[in-house]
Design a protein that fits this description.
Radius of gyration of chain A: 17 Å
Distance between the termini of chain A: 51 Å
CATH class of one domain in chain A: Mainly Alpha
Oligomer: heterodimer
Number of domains of chain B: 2
CATH topology of one domain in chain A: Rna Polymerase Sigma Factor, Chain: A
Number of helices of chain A: 8
Number of strands of chain A: 0
Shape of chain B: elongated
Structural class of chain B: mainly alpha
Strand content of chain B: under 5%
Helix content of chain A: over 70%
Number of helices of chain B: 8
């Protein structure tokens, strides 16, 4: 039997079916976790924020436009949850998260290089101010346009560009 | 030579420039090593970000998330029975009133054939009236110090009033519950 579409699951979850919402969580938890992990570079914190994101999604499910894809929407919700968190705690640049990223059975040398490489990027990202991190997340990973980011965050288009370009500049210097 | 701005290079890489601006920017890049170098630095940032691998969750979070969700509030069983109870009352109301309404309409529209018989309704109504007479004539056995209890039309009206109040309360609670669970 074909698995139900996201739309069907959302409609059922709106009617209060916990199982349907559980299926949505199963489908999207890794995606949400990755947004949170990129934003915080702390695995444990990212898991907590993933949970918080799904609680927010559940409470706002009625506001989701069923004509649009679900994945990008929850990506944006997750990014906003992370921004709220980062602004509330004013995180210091994160230390190296020792837990390894998932790769598909790489050789020990490749695994080491990949781990080093991804850790460098994650640390560089985590060292950026939260606002810059957010626009980079929305532009590069959620693939939103400038105007979509501005509308989503409720800020001016010029602020989106300014944050994004400064964030990239800082990132370029840290990745040299 | 005037160099490209940071904004222009970023917008070029983000595909946010109009076609005309893209073409003129590419013409400039073809002649300017400094701007090309600037572009390559940014392209490297784009490439590094795109190479960032997806991390995997160490465990399934779904059960914890579902436990944290607000549980739907269950209505008391009595209130859940309100809907079928109201349906029964409504059917009784119809059974009582339709024959009267039919008679009223038929008497005011003489000569018009309705083409259907309301005899079953009259039978049902008659059965109900017979039951009511039986109930009215029923007397509880008199006990010392207790004069007994008689059913009367007032009791019927009070019963209907009580049912109406129960109907309003039941629907009010159902509405309140619906709003709480689906704000």
């Amino acid at each position: 039997m074909a698995s139900p579409s996201d739309r069907d699951l959302i409609l059922r979850a709106r009617r209060g079916e916990m199982e349907a919402f559980g299926e949505l969580v199963l489908r999207f938890q890794n995606r949400v976790f990755n947004v949170c992990y990129r934003m915080t570079n702390e695995r444990r914190q990212a898991e907590d924020l993933t949970q918080e994101t799904f609680l927010r999604i559940h409470s706002r499910l009625d506001t989701f436009n069923l004509e649009r894809p679900f994945g990008p929407w929850i990506g944006r919700v997750a990014a906003n949850v992370c921004l709220n968190y980062l602004e509330s705690v004013k995180l210091k640049p994160s230390e190296l998260d020792e837990e390894r990223d998932a790769d598909e059975n790489p050789s020990p040398e490749t695994a080491y290089e990949n781990k080093e490489h991804s850790n460098r990027i994650r640390i560089a990202l985590a060292s950026l101010p939260a606002r810059y991190r957010l626009v980079i997340e929305l532009r590069h990973f959620q693939e939103m346009s400038y105007s979509e980011i501005a509308a989503n965050l409720g800020i001016q288009l010029s602020d989106v560009k300014s944050d994004l370009f400064r964030g990239r500049k800082m990132l370029a210097e840290k990745l040299k | 030579m005037k160099h490209l701005t940071d904004d222009a290079i970023n917008e070029y890489l983000d595909h946010e420039l109009a076609e005309f601006d893209r073409s003129s920017l590419e013409l400039h890049l073809a002649e300017c090593a400094e701007c090309t170098s600037h572009l390559e630095v940014l392209q490297e940032v784009f490439a590094q970000l795109s190479k960032l691998p997806e991390a995997s969750l160490s465990h399934d979070l779904s059960s914890g998330i579902l436990r944290s969700l607000p549980q739907p509030h269950a209505l008391p069983p009595l209130i859940r029975l309100a809907a079928p109870f109201q349906a029964v009352l409504a059917l009784l109301g119809l059974a009582i009133t339709i024959p009267y309404a039919y008679e009223k309409i038929a008497s005011s529209m003489t000569g018009i054939e309705f083409g259907f018989s309301l005899q079953p309704w009259f039978d049902l109504q008659m059965m109900g009236l017979n039951w009511w007479i039986v109930i009215k004539d029923f007397h509880l056995p008199a006990l010392p110090g207790f004069t007994g209890f008689e059913f009367s039309d007032q009791i019927l009206y009070l019963g209907l009033l009580a049912c109406s109040i129960a109907w309003f309360i039941g629907n009010g609670m159902l509405l309140k519950d619906t709003r709480r669970n689906h704000p």
